[in-house]
């Protein structure tokens, strides 16, 4: 049965676009596990939307499960195989930027374009694609869309959802749904593209997108700031946001233990501030005039220091300072690499509740004897906190124990088990903590309507 499908697929799209045997074993399911060979039936490398459609028509006819691979940077097991009998559709050959339209401020791209290439192409036109996060050099735009990625500038520009104007996607049965319009406003019925955004490849394969660009800022200012209490972090956020009148674009909170790990060996980065403060904030303002904005930015920090909202500040004065400050934040591999048997989290909850939640959670995590490292940090202005947890051992029970500590309080706090990474395989047991039974039922109804045989990313998000 299985090889019959591969033969049929070979006939349809050609042998060169199908990997099996040794070529397949050279592949993997995640960029952090390149040493673990892929266990799947075949990897398909379509170059066009019609090839994706032909592949899905055949898979649908055979009830063949399919997993879509983008840049393989997700953090929730959503590109893992569930039984090794899946066919992988890898989007890497659909990597063309089809059009940049500076007047409409849009970019039309194939799904396999790497996020960083989108950013660079926008910059060349004096425009900005604001989506930005540490995995930008590997993550594909189709992966960012499918996970509704967030990152470092959500506070000002929104999630991926807010940056996509049009989508072309292929349904499980091969039907192509195409709406590649460049318009911002479109209330002509249901906003179908939103179904594909954040659904982790379970409702369709995204093949193209029209991305929304914004005018490139003419100034960029950043500072690392030391703060004594969590309440003052919240005061500082309100102070800077109201004073900067809409130009605050980043407000990243890093707890002391994480800041130390980011800026001491094996990290090559030196700390911009001493290790004296419980909280560190990296902030960014994007504006219209470098000298004027820097002066205003500095003046605001001085006011915050005088009012004792913040305790210390280091301002970036040069391009290399900016590069240094942001590399400290973006190079998460530096502290994640110190965590053995690591578990990654991206919870969200109301901003005022975060301080106490993190203090209590870190305390409870260290009560688990096998937990030896906990690094909290987050996009606090979006109510989104990450934890990296390291352990001396690995077992299903231990993973569940850590999950319980982090996820259980979220229901009462009105939070979510995933702010931006999605559910994948890793979090599906915890989805009911933040979604009602009625919501879950509606999700399943939608899944059934769009993928009646359940072939797309089977077993991800829910069973
Ligand atoms: C160092 C690091 C930092 C990160 N920082 C952030 C961050 O700040 N914010 C954030 O939101 N995320 C972050 N992430 C995780 C983030 O979700 C992913 O990096 C990215 O969005 C996924 O893109 P990808 O191309 O790698 O997709 P993959 O990992 O390949 O796939 C992710 C999911 O999307 C599906 N998929 C991929 N392409 C398609 C397609 N064309 N059509 C349909 N389904 C598809 C897959 O089946 C899978 O379910 C980070 C990851 C790393 C490793």
Beta-strand proportion: 15-25%
Distance between the termini: 24 Å
Estimated structural class: alpha+beta
- Count of discrete domains: 4
What name does CATH use for the topology of the largest domain? Uridine Diphospho-n-acetylenolpyruvylglucosamine Reductase, domain 3
Unreliable segments of 5+ consecutive residues: none
Descriptive notes:
The protein has 463 residues and is an alpha+beta fold. It has four domains: 2-92, Uridine Diphospho-n-acetylenolpyruvylglucosamine Reductase, domain 2 (2-Layer Sandwich), CATH 3.30.43.10; 97-215, Uridine Diphospho-n-acetylenolpyruvylglucosamine Reductase, domain 3 (2-Layer Sandwich); 219-333, Alpha-Beta Plaits; 339-421, Alpha-Beta Plaits (2-Layer Sandwich). The chain has 16 helices and 18 strands. α8 packs antiparallel against α10 (290-306). The longest helix has 17 residues, at 290-306. The radius of gyration is 23 Å and the shape is globular. The two termini are 24 Å apart. The model has no long low-confidence stretch (mean pLDDT 96). The structure holds flavin-adenine dinucleotide.
Short description:
It is built from 16 helices and 18 strands. The chain is an alpha+beta fold.
Strand and helix layout:
Blueprint: H1 2-13, E1 18-19, H2 21-25, E2 42-44, H3 49-61, E3 66-69, E4 87-90, E5 97-101, E6 106-110, H4 115-124, E7 127-128, H5 141-147, H6 154-157, E8 164-170, E9 176-179, H7 193-196, E10 205-212, E11 214-215, E12 219-227, H8 230-244, E13 248-255, H9 256-263, E14 279-287, H10 290-306, E15 312-315, H11 319-330, H12 333-336, E16 343-348, H13 354-367, E17 371-379, E18 384-391, H14 396-407, H15 409-413, H16 437-450
Helix pairs in contact: 1-3, 8-10
